[in-house]
Design brief:
Helix content is about 90%, strand content about 0%. It contains 2 helices and no strands.
Length: about 100
C-alpha cells in the first residue's frame, strides 16, 4: 500500500469516528431537550392546576355568599307576604304582650 492510500484510509476512519461522535452528541442534545421540555411542561401543568384550584375555591366562596344572600332575600319576602296584620292578629298580640 502506498503512503497516500494509508493516509486516505486514516482520514476516512477519522471522519467516520467524528461523524459517529457528532451523531451521538446530537442524540444526547435531543434527549436533554426532551427531558427539559417535559420538566417545563410539568411545572406549567402544576402552576395551571394551582390556578384552577384557586379559581374553583373563589367560585365556591362566591356561590356560598350568593346562596346566603338569596336565602335572606327569600326569607324576607316570605315574611313580608305571610305576616299580614289582619290574618295574624292573635300572633301579633301575643308577641306584643311578650315585649
Amino acid at each position: 500500500m502506498t503512503p497516500l492510500r494509508t493516509n486516505l484510509k486514516k482520514q476516512k476512519k477519522q471522519s467516520a469516528e467524528l461523524l459517529a461522535q457528532a451523531r451521538t452528541r446530537a442524540n444526547q442534545i435531543v434527549e436533554e431537550a426532551k427531558t427539559q421540555a417535559g420538566e417545563e411542561a410539568e411545572r406549567i401543568k402544576l402552576g395551571a392546576q394551582s390556578e384552577i384550584d384557586q379559581e374553583v375555591n373563589r367560585a365556591r366562596e362566591e356561590l356560598r355568599s350568593r346562596v346566603s344572600e338569596l336565602a335572606i332575600e327569600g326569607a324576607e319576602k316570605i315574611l313580608e307576604t305571610s305576616v299580614d296584620k289582619s290574618v295574624h292578629q292573635d300572633m301579633l298580640n301575643k308577641i306584643a304582650a311578650q315585649l
